[in-house]
Amino acid sequence: MWAPDEDVAKLIFFGLYALQHRGQEAAGMAVSDGHRVVVYKDTGLVAQVFNETNLAALDGHIGIGHTRYSTTGSSTWENAQPTFRSVPHRNDSIALGHNGNLTNTLELAQKVHRGNGHIGSTTDSDIITALLAQHTGTLEEALKDVASILEGAFSLVVMDETTVYGVRDPAGVRPLSIGRLTSGGWVIASETCALDIVGAQFVRDVEPGEIVAVDEHGLRSMIFAKPEPKLCIFEYVYLSRPDSVLEGKTVHDTRRAMGAILAEEAPVSADLVIGVPDTGPVAAAGYAEASGIPYGEGLIKNRYVGRTFIQPTQTLRQMGIRLKLNPLKEAIKGKRLIVVDDSIVRGNTTRQIVKMLREAGATEVHLRITSPPIRWPCYYGIDMATRQELIASDLEVDEICQFIGADSLAYLTLPGLVRATGKPNEGFCRACFDGVYPIRIPEDPGQMKFILEPAPQRSEA
Ligand code: SF4
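Above: the input record for the complex with iron/sulfur cluster. Below: its predicted structure, written as tokens.
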């Protein structure tokens, strides 16, 4: 964010608050008053990391923020972002926040070491900062050169003392949007819901392969690579907030369309359509409207379950899904239910939901999923599971149905999902569904998350 006359730290705090769903492991912020960059970060949720006192110390008119969801590196303080480097040979410093995951991390780390640089943490993001710091040109030149050798998914916000940059990989796997404050300031954020919360008007997306810079000279654009758009289609299914706009359409509308198409593709006779929060209810409403079966609330979410520092005991583990969801018994008792959810990863959570609904009195449970079966892991920023852990990697739909204990199970087809977005098929990454990875992945991708950590020091996030 670049915004003279604004309390940038507070605006970024609220922006991060709106983006909390994208990462709950750590939060951080870097702010500059034009002369000095100050960074504050810690593990925990945005509201656990920041308070009036530390926000007051982050004084300035330029800043970036980050909420961390680990894809490379353990969940530790060192791996929280923004990453920071002072750059003596340029007489400035760099702070960087990264959304996504690189796929040529080891090659890049070797390049840092060959240039006598050091990597301060075990994240791919810190490698980008190290490469930028060891470049001998200006930060703008460094960004162009470094961005063109990164592979994988990267939506970046980068700053020095005076300028904020937004960078998006040539495939534009993760979103990145630009907004304008009424006071004239500029905002760059992962989702448009963060623009809304700070009162910024959406201007446009940062294009795949583009670097934008904002400072006292306004907004400038530089192209570092030919765009080959492959937006993550899972952003529509699960990741993005429903009130965010992706490619000109709200995620809410797309999810509703997914539900309607699912009703066409997989009809079933039932009394009530319910959705599994957070994403399911909107799609369930679409399914209900298209099928003519009434929609109702059947599962209530405890909204304040997030990251907790309480170690799970056996009793807490047995509570399982009930920590997050509670059935509305009166609404579902004696009913044949259609239950709409976004995806099935390992299958254990879905199995618990089906069991809980039956215990609450549902006579039939028909599960409808608004995405195709997830058969392949993601290497571009979603730490879903390994291929072995994905239930659909080696089980057919009827076998999965048996495992989760539903009366029937049906998934939205890939053409149906693409149709719901209203965009052409070739503009998306869909690799977790069809195994076609649009960006090169390492030959042995199994250890990508901990690729920079020596084995004895690894700790599971
Ligand atoms: Fe998105 Fe799936 Fe592609 Fe990962 S593999 S970027 S989750 S579509």
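Notes for the reader.
The pocket of iron/sulfur cluster is lined by residues 173, 232-234, 378, 380, 382, 429-432 (CB under 6 Å).
Residues 58 and 317 are 40 Å apart (CA to CA).
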